[in-house]
Automatic annotation (TrEMBL):
Gene3D superfamilies, A to Z: HAD superfamily/HAD-like, Phosphatidylinositol 3-kinase Catalytic Subunit, Chain A, domain 1
Originating species: Psilocybe cubensis
Chain ranges of the FCP1 homology domain: 160-276
Pfam entry (one): NIF
The protein's name: FCP1 homology domain-containing protein
GO CC term (a single one): nucleus
GO biological process, one term: regulation of proteasome assembly
């Protein structure tokens, strides 16, 4: 994450409000070497596999875990507390680690776009959002992210400004041609990007929120996994910002799961090389809205869901 003047901010102290958790120490062997890992009851099998990956670089999909439980390993969303771990607490890992190979840009160009058909509007499902926010595992993951985050300061934050947490991928630029190299960076940017930044800069400091972690729930009575962003990670490092003066702009509503009231969804920007993309005016509208609300003292009194309707009522072109 890049924020302000050159330097690194030391992580703040983490509050210990979590209830005492039970941790299980496990040992596994891989390529004739022994490894140890510790996992909490509130974690998921997914988290164990993530810990294994951090030690071995064997990706989740390549991990074959033998001897952890009797029989077939359950799905990733199952909690550790629900597993019947064998008494030895030892298992064997079989799997090939990922390489450091560089992908051919022509291959990257043919990759499919990210599918957003599983997006969820958490401003209309506060029950689900509360479940995320009060999940013991999620609370601990946020605290771990706060503790481990290193922040590179490029430009000093200004006193009295609001905070804009701005997503990048498919929000302010089309990521696919940028990463594939099929278009120059300037042609991947969403129309009006520079004008948008110039318009809001007098009122907002701007951060790119990149720290994310995976959460688990159900959708239509089926297991559902997706990534979320937690504004608490930023607020803990910069206490001058909070829910009253922060707005998070993203093209995916599901990224607002832990902070639904601060989220503003913008349409995804893709196919930057097409005439339809050149006619995109989303950032021009967003600039008008953000300047309009900039002098409101408490953003918690607002609902950003219908921000485009607000823009239509403003004087001048909408």
């Amino acid at each position: 994450m890049e924020l302000g003047e050159n330097g690194t901010i030391k992580s703040p102290e983490i509050s210990h409000e979590l209830a005492e958790e039970h941790w299980t120490k496990l040992q596994f062997t891989w390529i004739s070497k022994s490894y140890k890992v510790e996992i909490a009851d509130s974690d998921r099998l997914y988290d164990l596999k993530a810990a294994i990956y951090s030690l071995t670089k064997v990706p989740n999909e390549r991990q074959k875990i033998l001897g952890l439980v009797k029989g077939k390993l359950p799905p990733d969303e199952v909690r550790i507390s629900e597993l019947t771990i064998l008494p030895t607490k030892k298992f064997t890992l079989i799997g090939t680690p990922e390489g450091d190979e560089i992908k051919d840009p022509s291959q990257l160009e043919s990759l499919p776009d990210v599918v957003n058909d599983l997006d969820v509007d958490f401003t209309e499902n506060m029950v689900a959002s509360n479940r995320y926010q009060h999940d013991t595992r999620n609370i601990r993951k946020v605290q771990e992210a706060i503790r481990n985050l290193n922040i590179n300061i490029i430009h000093p934050l200004r006193q009295g400004k609001k905070l804009l947490v701005l997503d990048i991928d498919y929000t302010i630029l089309d990521t696919k041609p940028l990463t594939s190299g099929s278009l120059p960076p300037a042609e991947c940017a969403r129309p009006g990007l520079h004008e948008f930044l110039e318009a809001i800069y007098p009122y907002y400091d701007i951060l790119d929120k990149t720290s994310m972690f995976t959460v688990f729930t159900e959708r239509d009575s089926k297991p559902w996994t997706h990534s979320v962003k937690a504004l608490q990670i930023i607020w803990s490092h910069f206490p001058q910002f909070n829910a009253t003066n922060t707005i998070h702009v993203d093209d995916l509503s599901r990224n607002f799961a832990l902070n639904p009231k601060e989220g503003l969804k913008i349409s995804a920007f893709k196919n930057a090389h097409t005439p339809q993309a050149w006619e995109d005016r989303e950032l021009y509208k967003l600039a008008r809205y953000m300047v309009y609300i900039a002098n409101i003292d408490d953003f918690t009194t607002l609902s950003h869901k219908n921000w485009k309707n607000v823009v239509k009522r403003l004087p001048g072109p909408s």
